[in-house]
Specification:
2 copies of one chain form a homodimer. With about 475 residues, the first copy, chain A, is an alpha+beta fold. Chain A has 3 domains: about 90 residues, 2-Layer Sandwich (Uridine Diphospho-n-acetylenolpyruvylglucosamine Reductase, domain 2), CATH 3.30.43; about 120 residues, Uridine Diphospho-n-acetylenolpyruvylglucosamine Reductase, domain 3; about 200 residues, Vanillyl-alcohol Oxidase, Chain A, domain 3. In chain A, the strands form 4 sheets. The first copy, chain A, has a 7-stranded antiparallel sheet, sandwiched between helices. The longest helix of chain A has 20 residues. Chain A is globular and about 65 Å long. Chains A, B: Belongs to the FAD-binding oxidoreductase/transferase type 4 family. Chains A, B: It comes from Bradyrhizobium erythrophlei.
């Protein structure tokens, strides 16, 4: 049972795959694994998309390993798929044409930290939490937080963002340079440690969000920030989604540098109350975080409280006590589990869209109406400062009728966002699941350009085939 | 007399050019101009690079005009060069292979302003000052300020930035979407009005900084900011460039959200004193601007003053009075004229490099030493928060020996920045002048990738040939 995958590239010849596996086994010994269990672990299982395991998995330890895998695969026309932690949501790590998965679990070193320059150089398998653990003593942190403890290579490849993006930007704004293995195994350096540059085409941004389809990232230079002196958390309930959105717009317009501003719709608050043993009013809720000096944070909180009051917000509370902050944000971080607990045994599919913030209230409200009409259950959480929100749709995957309504819902959600000058995905990426929406969003000419770039940089189509760029028929 | 241009693409056949001019004259009437004076105005005259005028200039009024120019030129293999205000600094608007220049002077409309969403849609000929004039009543502004009153299309094409980048980012962070005319005259839409997106390859960023070599931008959707409640200007003199740089690093590390932080070296201060009738101490100077609420700005100023004190800064003064602010910043904006007045009749060439901020003091100091050794005069101003600085080199263009020393100086400046993990240009772009440095900075593989992309998106090489991508021999 699964969402239709329409772009199924041709599988490599079994003889070619066998030759590649033999050569890689000789090179990597027991770091090449072909057991079914490991192959299945590396295919995509967190969505409705069908799992498509690779033929083999190599655990890389250094860039030279990746170069060798790419060279062997290229010689035989066998696909190469990069794998971080497997938390992507649109089938990015599936292997529809088979091939070799390169697992970056062991390429997890922080190579250099330049605290004065607010940057560091890392291997792609470093995870977000491990990185911040490593950095803490030096008074700096990496702000992008997509929820999952994803690898930085994967986060760059899907152009991830999350709760902090409203203040600190997404992966797009926080990667300075990449080292990328190209189709013949040689290495492209896309930039330097300079904070800005006008030197030639922006290769860095071309590989960010390319989901491993143009080459394989083996090193990242990323921006860091100073750990704020004070962090305050706040919560504020609203009569309506519209009031919460209006408060967000006003806060951003007046320049309150809010670090996080998350919307939970009434149904999500209900789920969190039940799961996290809270007693929040079961109406739309904004969860906020302010960063800065003590005086800063106090002023930001005061200013936001005034705005919230004008927009029908009530019961605004804020705190700088770490234990209170943690409690509040833990509920947000557990939102997925809270949804899952609403209907044990059902599948949960997370999908995301992003619209101009002035249309967010319309988009969320119409989406809630659609859920009622289709008799579906999907709490909503939103990175409301960016106009980005997620639906966590609960469906019984064995109930064909409900699944069909679920697909209709998701289809209509994307079309609604696009009709409001928004995008079919703010942060999850295209992968396999959203290829059919690219043309409607950007037009055939943009797809042509993407195809031409793919052909130019990966003429043998060995890098993660079947992702992002739709099949020629679409 | 001029800096060597090494990449000279083959000129279009005179017959082809004649055919294009005839067709465009029929289509555009007196909006097609071939007079020598107008052609020369559209070639590059603000640098040491030799001027290379186009064969004709078309004054476009709408996207359809650009589409028609491109179609006619493509049919005959004749180059098309986009022209904003002609303030680029590395030969970006030169026409080394001849061709048709498209002047965007008359495509200067603000098409939509979405104050709630903090974005607007504009034509490429809108200039920075005209845009902010237009926006003022709505409480929003566009923060990128490269000094010159450049057009937004040109600013996007060279990935411009300037004095506000330390807080608000560069053009890279402030363009949401572009409309681009491709080689067959069709239009590529690169994005939507959503603040963030993971939908496919990042075409927007590929065209930003492409200097018109991959297509021609005919519409931009850009990000705006709320006009800050209070703006304060400050100045602080330092014993040494190192002290000024150290204060900057500490300010950024501790998260003071300074909006502008500009370094003037002692020689630049001297030039400004003389030109702008000021009496600043003739030692390294930081000029700052703080944006925020009144309380915010006061706190930022106080915190910075403390840091400056620790780093050998003295005489820190700050003010929110508009007339005092203007006086201070006027001196900075007139820095170029102040340099010119130091030696009337000499040529001034502005060049820029950018290094990790921890290396900035070394880079500036070594550059000052080099100037002494080479008996050259070049005041230095720096967007010090980004590690980016400019030399305004004064040379008698008729003195071959001095010019040779000037070229040596600029060459060594770039190599110095690159050896410190920096870039040959932070914001001026590659154009013609800096192609020879790209390979040293990024390696042959990055150049290969740029060539492959150019070939994929502009197979006929009609878009601004001879720019960015070095000739195959380099």
């Amino acid at each position: 049972m699964g969402t239709t995958i329409t772009n199924t590239p041709k599988r490599a010849e079994p003889k070619a795959v066998a030759a590649v596996v033999e050569k890689l086994a000789a090179r990597f010994g027991n770091r090449l694994v072909t057991s079914q269990a490991v192959r299945e672990q590396h295919a995509h299982t967190t969505t409705w998309l069908q799992s498509q395991p690779p033929d083999a998995v190599v655990f890389a330890q250094e860039t030279a390993d990746v170069q060798d895998v790419v060279r062997v695969c290229a010689a035989h026309g066998v696909p190469v798929i990069a794998f971080g932690t497997g938390t992507s949501l649109e089938g990015q790590v599936n292997a529809p044409a088979g091939g070799v998965c390169v697992d970056f679990r062991d390429m997890n070193k922080v190579l250099e930290v330049h605290a004065e320059d607010l940057d560091c150089v890392i291997q792609p398998g470093v995870t977000r939490k491990a990185l911040n653990e490593h950095l803490r003593d030096q008074g700096v942190f990496f702000p992008i937080d997509p929820g999952a403890d994803a690898s930085l290579g994967g986060m760059a490849s899907t152009r991830a963002s999350g709760t902090n993006a409203v203040r600190y930007g997404t992966m797009r704004e926080n990667v300075l340079a990449l080292k990328v293995v190209r189709g013949d195994g040689e290495i492209i350096n896309t930039g330097t440690r300079a904070k800005k540059s006008s030197a030639g085409y922006d290769l860095t941004h071309l590989f960010i969000g390319a989901e491993g389809t143009l080459g394989i990232i083996t090193e990242l230079t990323i921006r860091l920030r100073g750990i704020p002196e004070t962090i305050a958390a706040a919560a504020c309930s609203f009569d309506s989604v519209r009031g919460a959105c209006q408060a967000t717009i006003m806060a951003i317009q007046t320049g309150i540098p809010v670090a996080r501003i998350e919307l939970l719709n009434a149904e999500q608050v209900k789920a969190c109350n039940s799961y996290s043993k809270l007693s929040l009013p079961e109406t739309p809720l904004l969860l906020l975080e302010f960063h800065g000096s003590e005086a800063d944070v106090a002023e930001q909180s005061k200013n936001f409280a005034e705005i919230a009051g004008e927009c029908g917000g009530g019961g605004f509370t804020w705190t700088t006590r770490p234990e209170d902050r943690t409690k509040l944000w833990q509920a947000r971080h557990d939102a997925y589990w809270a949804v899952k607990a609403l209907r044990p045994g059902a599948g949960v599919v997370a999908t995301d869209v992003c619209v101009p913030i002035s249309r967010l209230a319309d988009c969320v409200t119409e989406t809630e109406d659609d859920l009622k009409r289709l008799r579906l259950q999907s709490p909503i959480v939103g990175h409301v400062g960016d106009g980005n929100f997620h639906c966590s749709l609960l469906c019984d995957v064995d109930d064909a009728a409900e699944m069909a309504r679920g697909e209709e819902f998701m289809h209509r959600l994307v079309e609604r966002a696009q009709s409001m000058q928004g995008t079919c995905t703010g942060e999850h990426g295209i992968g396999q699941g959203k290829q059919k929406y690219l043309k409607g969003e950007l037009g055939a000419e943009a797809i042509d350009a993407m195809r031409a770039i793919k052909q130019a940089l990966d003429p043998k189509n060995i890098f993660n085939p079947g992702k992002i760029v739709p099949a020629p028929s679409e």
